[in-house]
UniProtKB/TrEMBL annotation:
Protein name as catalogued: Pyruvate, phosphate dikinase
Record has Nucleotidyltransferase as a keyword: no
Active-site residues, as the UniProt record annotates them: 455 (tele-phosphohistidine intermediate), 833 (proton donor)
GO terms, molecular function: ATP binding; kinase activity; metal ion binding; pyruvate, phosphate dikinase activity
Family the entry assigns: Belongs to the PEP-utilizing enzyme family.
Presence of keyword Transcription regulation: no
NCBIfam families the UniProt entry points to: PRK05878.1 (NF004531), pyru_phos_dikin (TIGR01828)
InterPro entries, sorted: ATP_grasp_subdomain_1 (IPR013815), PEP-util_enz_mobile_dom (IPR008279), PEP_util_AS (IPR018274), PEP_util_C (IPR000121), PEP_util_CS (IPR023151), Phosphohistidine_dom_sf (IPR036637), PPDK_AMP/ATP-bd (IPR002192), Pyruvate_phosphate_dikinase (IPR010121)
EC number annotated for this UniProt entry: 2.7.9.1
Segments forming domain Pyruvate phosphate dikinase AMP/ATP-binding: 20-56, 69-290, 303-355
Keyword entries, A-Z: ATP-binding, Kinase, Magnesium, Metal-binding, Nucleotide-binding, Transferase
Superkingdom of source: Eukaryota
């Protein structure tokens, strides 16, 4: 097997299609060489080698080292330099790079190949100051990244040296001083019980090992877990000739996005530093300049950079994230990759690229991550002018949107608070890969340090979290559990609001509002619907939710949970309780008669809001005791006796009867209405009377009446004939008919297995994948939290099956039931209304199975629309 791939002008073995083998970085370096851009030559050791290394007890596979040396020879020839040769030294950088960009793995080692001997040669060629500075940087990075020697120990030595010499900046130290610093750095290794390897080949080998090891580091593993990255083999190693951005005033180094990653504007967006090495930009030692300043400072270089960016965008048809270095007036491209962006930016860029003729609308639809759309649908502040007097600090607008939460200072606190149901804003000096889980748990992040490309900014944008970085007015006093924004003290758990679009930090809670689908988003969603073939409905129980979902593009209601309607007012709940504790059918019917007008008017509202679209109404589902108040049994009984006029002893007995050991498998769903037919009769009457009433006013109604939780076709037959009897009664009374259908939820495995029988009665199926998942796995929906994290940590589950549909198991039932159902009734309408209906991967799966629609919460409707469109193009 080929394990080492050269990239460069002469020998270029790879290209962008080889990302899984060469990693994203390696594949793109080869691609850039292929299209003729100036890239310092080097080579990539494959991701498969990383896997082999770990499978083989941390040893390189046979022949790999020899292949590495051969690839190095090619680089030496192209450069006319020799690795480890003091007379004409070749220096290298070593970096990790998996198929998917992934923080948490090994950072960069620069200037590899220097030793006490080689540095003298470099000094003779490039000057002592430059050479010893490069050497001590290498000793620091190599020590820290490869040998695990803490960076601070080196930093201490440098600070001590500056003190001794009475200077403020590194740049004020002389060549001799730097030589001495390098000498002391080597002693740091010894003090830490190790040794700096003088042989450059030992350095190279150790660095390759370190990259492979970093794949299995805790940080990398946590990141893969949080980002749900599975199925990756390992990381590649990229070894590349050094380009020096620190060779004086004609040299520079920088990072940029070809368009604004926060809002999508077509304008280079990034930072650079004159006379500096790559790490200086990220480390924040000096404040980088905006890339626009380069136009005046280095006009020629700027023009060339713009040309390269243009070329890369046209080549990849994607916004690019670029690293470059200018060495003595020559521009080198060090990295390019698809730029991470916010949802807002993603939509804007996709639309702009269509207008620029770069891509087709169809391609545009594929360029926006459906989950990313979520961000655009997230709240903004209702009134930005209203809070201006409460703005206590302003930082960089690193990731847009608005969020409100309670202040926490550590990632752990963020996780704990979130777990107990609180919204939090994580406030930190800066963030590191260890903080990613806590960031995930936060509504937003504020950091004191860092720029638009700092860790916090990049991670937050990727997840669509609001983020403000570089908030210079922020001082954190973690020990005291407080911080200051300017002069304002904010304590832990105090509420703040942050505006990631403007960078403003506001004390207190600011009201949020829902965004609208206009402008670019409107155009984009229009394309989405052009390509989409599967329907997207919504789960809604109120006319308000239904109207909102319709704004978001819902094409019907896929699930109205009628029990939710009873919770709307205290009066309704009381009436429901009367029904539950009724001691006779007569009493129960009386209570139901009181409920009827409420239900009817609710349904009228729903039908009206969804004029012309199907409305799927499910008959009562949950266990009855859910409607009873919590608390001390005696008090509850007394209260119910008062409310209903019943006898306390009878009520106590009724409640006792309702108590269940396993309510999810208990007296719920159609079991209720089969036992007490009067409940379903009332609901059927309310639905059909409402349908007739509004249709008389000109509203187009399409009621789909849905029976929950059936396991046998006899259950469905029982309820179906009840509904049809009631329908005839209503139509006769009203003197008008409306069309309606009777169908069922498929949420018990038995119903899926016998779907052919069920379809003899059912005119439609809706997969209730919450219950279907619960009963297929045998995991209680309400208790999975007790062991889910363990299962994820141990890799027993990859994802929460209640969020992402289990294609293998539950998916098989869906597929089979759909086929069986349609074998009986070819025009059977089939949908899905569990939580997974708003998850893009699940939407794509059920599209492939051939479902007619998915139904999800109003908020996720646009996401499901995009996922459905992507499935069909
Ligand atoms: C389901 O079980 O998937 C469903 C939609 O019903 P509910 O969540 O109300 O049980
Ligand atoms: Mg259910």
């Amino acid at each position: 097997v080929k394990r080492v791939y050269n990239f460069g002008k002469g020998k270029n073995d790879g290209d962008a299609s080889m990302k899984s083998l060469l990693g994203g970085k390696g594949a793109n370096l080869a691609e850039m060489c292929g299209i003729g851009l100036a890239v310092p030559p080097g080579f990539t050791i494959t991701t498969e080698t990383c896997r082999a290394f770990h499978n083989n007890d941390r040893t390189l596979p046979e022949g790999c080292w020899e292949d590495t040396l051969a690839a190095l020879k090619v680089v030496e020839e192209e450069m006319g330099q020799k690795f480890g040769d003091a007379a004409n030294p070749l220096l290298l950088s070593v970096r990790s790079g998996a198929a998917v960009s992934m923080p948490g793995m090994m950072d960069t080692v620069l200037n590899l190949g220097l030793s006490d001997n080689v540095v003298e040669g470099l000094a003779a060629k490039a000057g002592g100051r430059f050479a010893y500075d490069a050497y001590r940087r290498f000793l620091d990075m190599f020590g820290n990244v490869v040998m695990g020697v803490p960076h601070e120990l080196f930093e201490e030595q440098l600070e001590a040296m500056k003190k001794e010499k009475g200077v403020e900046f590194d740049t004020d130290l002389s060549a001799e001083d730097m030589k001495e610093v390098a000498h002391r750095y080597k002693q740091v290794y010894v003090d830490q019980g190790t040794q700096f390897p003088d042989d450059p080949y030992d350095q190279l080998r150790a660095s390759i090992y370190a990259v492979f090891d970093s794949w299995e580091s805790d940080r990398a593993k946590v990141y893969r877990q949080v980002a749900k990255l599975t199925g990756l083999g390992g990381t590649a190693v990229n070894v590349q000739t050094m380009a020096f951005g620190n060779m004086g005033d004609t040299s520079a180094t920088g990072v940029l996005f070809t368009r604004n990653p926060a809002n999508g504007d077509k304008h280079l967006y990034g930072e650079y530093l004159m006379n500096a090495q790559g790490e200086d930009v990220v480390a924040g030692i000096r404040t980088p300049l905006h890339i626009d300043d380069m136009k005046a400072e280095m006009p020629q270089m700027y023009d060339e950079l713009v040309r390269n960016c243009d070329l890369l965008e046209r080549h990849y048809k994607e916004m690019q994230d670029i690293e470059f270095t200018i060495q003595e007036g020559k521009l080198f491209m060090l990295q390019c990759r698809t730029g991470k962006r916010t949802g807002m930016s993603a939509v804007k860029i996709a639309v702009a690229m269509v207008d620029e003729g770069l891509i087709t609308p169809e391609e545009a639809v594929l360029k926006v991550d459906a989950n990313h759309l979520d961000q655009l649908l997230h709240p903004q502040f209702e009134d930005e002018a209203a809070y201006k007097d409460r703005v206590v600090a302003t930082g960089l607008p690193a990731s847009p949107g608005a969020s409100v939460g309670q202040v926490v200072f550590t990632a752990d606190d963020a996780e704990t608070m979130k777990a107990s149901g609180h919204d939090v804003i994580l406030v930190r000096k800066e963030t590191s890969p260890e903080d990613v889980k806590g960031m995930h748990s936060s509504e937003g992040v504020v950091t004191q340090l860092g720029g638009m490309t700092s860790h916090a900014a990049v991670v937050a944008r990727g997840w669509g979290k609001t983020c403000i970085t570089g908030c210079g007015d922020l001082q954190i006093d973690e020990g005291n559990g407080s911080c200051r924004f300017g002069n304002t003290v904010v304590n832990e758990h105090d509420w703040i609001s942050i505006n990631g679009t403007t960078g403003e930090v506001i004390v207190g809670k600011c009201p949020l509002k829902q965004p609208e689908m206009v402008g670019d988003l409107g155009r984009f969603m229009h394309w989405v619907d052009q390509f989409r073939t599967m329907g997207v409905y919504t789960n809604a129980d109120t006319p308000e939710d239904a109207a909102m979902a319709r704004e978001n593009g819902a094409e019907g209601i896929g699930l109205c949970r009628t029990e939710h309607m009873f919770f709307a007012t205290e009066e309704r709940i009381k009436t429901v309780r009367k029904m539950i504790v009724a001691q006779s059918k007569e009493d129960r019917v009386k209570a139901l008669d009181e409920l009827l007008p409420f239900q009817r008017s609710d349904f009228e509202g729903l039908f009206t809001a969804m004029d012309g679209l199907p409305v799927t109404i499910r008959l009562l589902d949950p266990p009855l005791h859910e409607f009873l108040p919590d608390g001390d049994m005696d008090e509850v009984v007394e209260m119910l006796a008062r409310e209903t006029g019943g006898k306390p002893a009878d009520i106590a007995e009724t409640i006792e009867r309702l108590e269940e050991l396993n309510p999810m498998l208990g007296f719920r769903g159609c079991r209720l209405a089969i036992t007490y037919p009067e409940i379903a009769e009332m609901q059927a009457r309310a639905i059909l009377e409402a349908a007739v009433n509004v249709s008389k006013k000109g509203v187009k109604v399409q009621p789909d009446i849905m029976v929950p939780l059936i396991g046998t076709s006899a259950e469905l037959k029982n309820q179906e004939s009840l509904v049809r009897r009631m329908a005839e009664k209503v139509f006769e009374e009203k003197g008008t008919r409306v069309d309606y259908r009777v169908g069922t939820m498929i949420e018990i495995p038995r119903a899926a297995l016998l779907a052919d029988q069920v379809a003899e009665t059912a005119e439609f199926f809706s997969f209730g994948t919450n219950d279907l998942t619960q009963m297929t796995f045998g995991y209680s929906r309400d208790d999975i939290g007790k062991f889910l994290q363990v299962y994820l940590d141990k890799g027993i589950l990859q994802v929460d099956p209640f969020q992402v549909l289990d294609e293998e198991g539950v998916g098989q039932l869906i597929k089979m039931a759909t086929e069986k159902g349609r074998a009986t009734r070819p025009n059977l309408k089939v949908g899905l209304c569990g939580e997974q209906g708003g998850d893009p991967a699940s939407v794509k799966f059920v599209y492939a199975v051939g479902l007619d629609y998915v139904s999800c919460s109003p908020f996720r409707v646009p996401i499901a629309r995009l996922a459905a469109a992507q499935a069909s193009v």
